[in-house]
Amino acid sequence: MVKKQVMVMDDSRVVELQVRKLLEDSGFEVAVYCENGEEAIARYREVLPDVVLADIIMPGIDGLEAAGIILEEHPEARIVMMSSLADEDSLSEAQAIGARAFLHKPLERETLVDTLKKALE
Q1: Is the separation of the CB atoms in 70 and 42 below 8 Å?
Q2: Contacts of 25 (CB under 8 A, 6+ apart)
Q3: What is residue 39's DSSP assignment?
Q4: Is-cis flag, bond preceding 49, omega within 30?
Q5: How far is CA 74 from the centre of its chain?
Q6: pLDDT digits (tens, 9 = 90+) for 79-96
């Protein structure tokens, strides 16, 4: 079975390792990890992942701005935003730029996998 490729955009290596663990035996795998928005924008073109899991709050270009740029260049991109500090403004902005879904940290396996599957529909 070919696994769906996930790009993780988060300034925390801990979150990346957590996502890798949560996605074991799920049909998804972390194809690329980016510590910031600039890197994610550049790497998206190379990897063309099935779905992007993006943290909102990061130094430099944040997740929302990076997601917006990726979606401008690749309207077919599927992006799921995540944050531990989500407020209504962030949720509204995520929807406005075209994010498919929003996850609250800490992530739970079932919710993560279900959300990634829905994002691909």
Answers
A1: no
A2: none
A3: H
A4: no
A5: 15
A6: 999 998 878 888 899 999
Q: The dihedral of CA 21, 23, 28, 31: what is its sign?
A: negative
Q: Looking at the whole model, is its pTM more than 0.70?
A: yes
Q: What percent of the chain has pLDDT over 70?
A: 99
H or E segment at 18? helix 13-22
Q: Beta strands 28-34 and 4-9: pairing type? A: parallel
- Helices 63-73, 37-47: inter-axial angle, 10-degree rounding: 30
Phi, psi of 9, deg, nearest 5 = -115, 105
For residues 36 and 57, give the distance between their C-alpha atoms in angstroms, rounded to a whole number.
10
